Amino acid sequence: MTEREAVAGMLDEFADRLEAKGVEYKPRAYRNAAESVRDTSRDALEQPKGIPDVGDAIASKIDEFRETGRVEELEELRDETPVEMEALTRVEGVGPKTVGKLYDALGVTDLDELEEAGRDGRIRNVTGFGEKTEENILDGIPFAREAGERTPLGESVPRARELVETVEGVVGVERAVAAGSVRRRKETTGDIDIVVVSDDREATADAFADRDVELVQKGDRKTSFRRDGEEVDLHLVEEDEFGAALQYFTGSKKHNVKTRDVAVGEGLKLNEYGVWDAETGERVAGETEEEVYDALGMGYIPPEMREDRGEVEVARDGTLPDLVNVEDVRGELHSHTSRTDGGATLERMVAGAEEKGLDYLAVTEHTEALGVVGGLSDDELLTLADDVRALGEDTDVRLFSGAEANVLKDGSLDVSDGTLSQLDVVVASVHTGMDMAKEEATERLVSAVRHDGVDILGHPSGRLINSREGYGYDFDAVLDAAEDEGVALELNANPRRLDIRDTQVRRCVEHGVPVAVNTDAHAPGEYGYVKYGVWTARRGWAEVEDVLNTRTADELEDWLDG
Predict the structure, then answer these.
(1) Percent of the chain scoring above 90 in pLDDT
(2) Which ranges carry the DNA-directed DNA polymerase X domain (predicted)?
């Protein structure tokens, strides 16, 4: 675990344990600070008060944690509620508040005790729970156990980045690149693979043997170690082998099988050391990935596409897509402020958008049916719209008024048509009543898409990676409705959501349905989530024209009015 990830994890745990005790407001501040830490540079931890969303109190805890490896106040919270918070909150429907209630009522501290309490029928007797809740918790425990074995992309990418920086500082290392599922930007990842060019492979291996890690294997070709339970494999190669090794260890396995089959058909041999003429044994490529693919008669295949989903075939016939890049995204179409559950004022969110270089920003607050986060009434939405327009006169960021309307169980919205007609951008999302059959969920989403006032369907499955599986629905039926109605589907870029999935992005691309890569930002630091959304869009073969918010502000306005 990198230092940034450790600090962010400490802040997240602070938030969870405060919430478990019923503390208001503070948990959101700690979560915002955690996201800002994840999105900042390693050096920024030296002066934590300079990190967005980090005030004096949180900065002092960061300093204490970095100096001592612990925070006294957090230790006290752990003693007060001695539970395995991370494991328990992976169970769908079990948040920190639920953990606190179950600990107070039943003494539940871990998944085993939670399962035992459920099977004994004790959960249903806790105030605020019931038989159905108990059943749902029991159903979610196997998923929670399995989820603990995979790392979300939002954690693995910063971790891999910092590991690469560490490796680059080791004796003999000339270059290092993270490979594997991290490089392919899968939504969850396993162990971390790093391809390393070293002018003294033995010395590099010895350097890691001397470090504070659990050494698994040491050799001049591969050195593996565990740190905080995570295995890291260093693949040590020569400079002229680097491209072949990077291609091989990036994977996927199915992609590599396909490329090896192509090599055989071309009279070649492909492995992690290079491309060879099968008859003469002459080496023909290996130093770069580009020359490896070229030797196989292909264009360069971006790592995100390497899943054996047809990418080899299009690379062979010269029709590879020109994938969207992070810098192609011009604006944000889903954001929140402190008027509901956001962690920053409208003015601060706009200033953050300007600092991020966004061309436009839609402010889409929660609506009245979502009372738990202070959803706005129709009148409050219109007041906010006026404030957004007024603020737009004083900023270079084009501002759009909006709402994230709640989709009710019958598929209707909790905002009047008259109010919706006065807003620029309407995102429709399901936030409540998620326990429903596939057919019911499909009808609910299709009804929302067919509403005249809806522009974007937000995070359609409602999933939270490693926490909530989300409800099943017929994606093709929703896609067909979106195509008919000219509605975009959201790819929520929050790394805990990434909803829609990469394969669903591919279906949108095939049907010409725009994908809105939105961060769902609740604080300025969360605008940086856009990269996770773009990476997922690239896995779905999305090009610039497939992503709604790559349009200019004027082009977007034309689309909204169309």
Answers:
(1) 74
(2) 1-307
